[in-house]
Amino acid sequence: MLLRSIAFTAALLAIGPVTATGLATCDSGDKSTWKSMDALKEKLSGEGWKVRHMKEDGGCYEVYAIDDKGSKVEAYFHPVTFERVPTEHDAH
Amino acid sequence: MSATPPLAQRERVRVYDPLVRLAHLVFIGGVAAAWFTRHAPGRWHEWIGYAVMGALAIRLLWGVVGTPAARFHRFVRGPRATLRYGADLVRGRAPRYLGHNPLGAWMILALLLTLATIVVTGWMFTTDRWFGYAWVIGSHEIATWVLFVLVPLHVAGVIHASFAHRENLVAAMLDGRKPAAAGDDVPP
C-alpha cells in the first residue's frame, strides 16, 4: 500500500513537458576544434567581465557573469569563434 | 474503558486553521507553477518564488505563535517517540492523531526546510552578490530534487494514514475539520 502510493505520486510528478534547458545552441562541430574555456574566460576578463561560472550547453559555452557594465548576464558563446550567440532571454 | 464511537458518528472539530490550509495550498500551487516556469521567459518563476517565500515566512512564524495543530513544539516529537510510532505503524496499530503524527511532523519540518533552501538560493541568484555561482544554482536544483523525493513520501504517508484510520485526510487539510478525538486518539 505504502509503496504503491509512493510509486503513483512519483509517476504523477514525472509527467511534465520535456523542455530543453539550453537558451541557445551552437553548430560548433568536433570538440577538437574548440578553443578552451579558460581562453574565453581570459578574453572576457580582459573586457571587464567578472566570470562566475562556465559550462558547455548545446554546443556553446554558457557563461554566468557580471559584465563590464555591472549587469548580471547569462551569455552564450560559440566555442570556436568566441562570438556571442543571442539567446531567447536577450530579446526580453 | 468505554467504547469509542466510530468516526462517522463523532462531532467534527476544527483542527487546521485557515492560515495553515492556505499556506499549504500556496506551497502546492507555487511549487507546481515554479516547476513549469523554470525556463520560461520573463520573471514568472521569480514572482512565484516570492509568493512561496512570503507564505513560508508566515507559516514558520505561525509554527511558533499559531493554533495548536500549527505549532511545531506541539507536534514535533523526539527521535524515540517517533521511532516508537514508526514501529506501531508497521504493526498496524499506530494511534490516530488529530494533528500531525510524529512521522508526519518530521516530514513537515523537512518539507519546510527544503522549501526554504529553494526560495533562499533562488532569491540569491537574483542578487549581484550571489548571481551566477555554480554552488548557488546547484543547491537550488538539488533542494528541488530533494523536495520531489519528499513530496511523494508525504502524499504516501497521508494516503496510508487515511486508509489506516478510515478518514479522508486530504479533505481534512482542505476544510480543516476532523472527527473529534476519542479513546486512544491523540488530540493536537
Explain this structure.
The complex is a heterodimer of chains A (92) and B (188). Chain A has 92 residues and is an alpha+beta fold. Chain A has one domain (22-91): Nuclear Transport Factor 2, Chain: A (Roll), CATH 3.10.450. In chain A, a hairpin with a 6-residue loop joins strand 3 (72-77) and strand 4 (84-85). Chain A has helices at residues 2-14, 37-46; strands at residues 50-57, 60-66, 72-77, 84-85. A four-stranded antiparallel β-sheet of chain A has the order 1-2-3-4, covered by helices on one side. Chain A has two helices and four strands, in the order H-H-E-E-E-E. Mean pLDDT of chain A is 84; it is low at 16-20. By secondary structure, chain B is mainly alpha-helical. Helix content of chain B is 63%, strand content 3%. Chain B has seven helices and two strands, in the order E-H-H-H-H-H-H-H-E. Chain B starts with 11 loop residues before the first strand and ends in a 9-residue tail after the last strand. At the A-B interface, helix 1, strand 1 and strand 2 of A face helix 6 of B.
Mean pLDDT of chain A: 84
The CATH class of chain A: Alpha Beta
CATH topology call of chain A: Nuclear Transport Factor 2, Chain: A
What string gives the helices and strands of chain A in order? Answer: HHEEEE
Largest beta sheet of chain A: what is the strand line-up?
Answer: 1-2-3-4
The best one-word shape of chain A is: elongated
Strand content of chain B: under 5%
CATH domain class of chain B: Mainly Alpha
- Mean pLDDT over the residues of chain B: 94
Contiguous helical run count of chain B? 7
Strand content of chain A: 25-35%
Distance from N terminus to C terminus of chain B (CA atoms, Å) equals: 22 Å
Helix/strand class of chain A: alpha+beta
Largest sheet of chain A: 4 strands, antiparallel
Low-confidence stretches of chain A: 16-20
CATH topology of chain B: Fumarate Reductase Cytochrome B subunit
Derived structural class of chain B:
mainly alpha
